[in-house]
Amino acid sequence: MVSIEVRGAYVDFPIFDAKTRSLKKQVLGKVGGKIGTEAKVPIIEALRDITLSLREGDRVGLVGHNGAGKSTLLRLLSGIYEPTRGSAHVVGRIAPVFDLGVGLDPEVSGHENILIRGLFLGMGRKQMEKKVDDIAEFTELGDYLHLPLRTYSAGMRVRLALGVVTTIDPEILILDEGLGAIDSAFLAKARERLVDLAQRSGLLVFALHADELLMELCTTALWMDEGRIRKHGPLSEVLAAYKGRL
Ligand SMILES: Nc1ncnc2c1ncn2[C@@H]1O[C@H](COP(=O)(O)OP(=O)(O)OP(=O)(O)O)[C@@H](O)[C@H]1O
Predict the structure, then answer these.
(1) DSSP readout, 55-109?
(2) pLDDT tens digits, one per residue of 46-62
(3) Ligand 1, residues at Cβ distance < 6 Å
(4) Where is the ABC transporter domain (predicted)?
(5) What is the pTM of this model?
(6) Which CATH superfamily is domain 3-93+213-245 in?
């Protein structure tokens, strides 16, 4: 049974090369986490007092302003960041998908990248070999799949990465935005696969700025505001409250 249990978690980033004095004079804007200036070294308080309990079947969309802490929370859940204080326990195999096109190898072909990316996301080699043709067809990259990835445009790389991601069977899927580079016709085509993926993921946590996709993929939402959870509940309620605030 997969689960995520976070208790009173904080994530701080000390900034060793920033000048505290100039920061004190600055009027704080609406973007980003809180910058603490009491200590000798300025500290960005990216996550503050996060308590969260997720179970199998939960599909959570993260919303919030730029710098609210969405990506930091996803990295905490993926085990990439340890909490500075508090705890974060995850039971289940995580497939973390941050920036879709990152982590691909520019020197090998699209075909080989499909295999490598699948293995990285926890699939077996045999399983991936069976899926390669289907992924190749979905990407519509044709002969480009035989060329090194460095010859691809940003959108072509995301097509390939998205093709792989939507074929895996994750226990826990952590997905950060990264669909911006693909054209709208391809996104419409990818939609069905993303919905399928969301439905077969044991637990899904997804950060995305596009409401429409959130509505299709998630059941609940979590509104992050200056590093804290402002509201967690049914998707439509949280989105309405977040929009009202904007
Ligand atoms: N590696 C880092 N070093 C220092 N500060 C960081 C680092 N990563 C994030 N931050 C800070 O933590 C805060 C939260 O950032 P985060 O990337 O989690 O926000 P976000 O909600 O994902 O934003 P966006 O919607 O713009 O992607 C911001 O104030 C940011 O400046």
Answers:
(1) ETT-EEEEE-STTSSHHHHHHHHTTSS--SEEEEEEES-EEEE-STTTT--TTSB
(2) 999 999 999 999 999 99
(3) 13, 32-33, 44, 46, 64, 66-72, 224
(4) 23-246
(5) 0.85
(6) P-loop containing nucleotide triphosphate hydrolases (3.40.50.300)
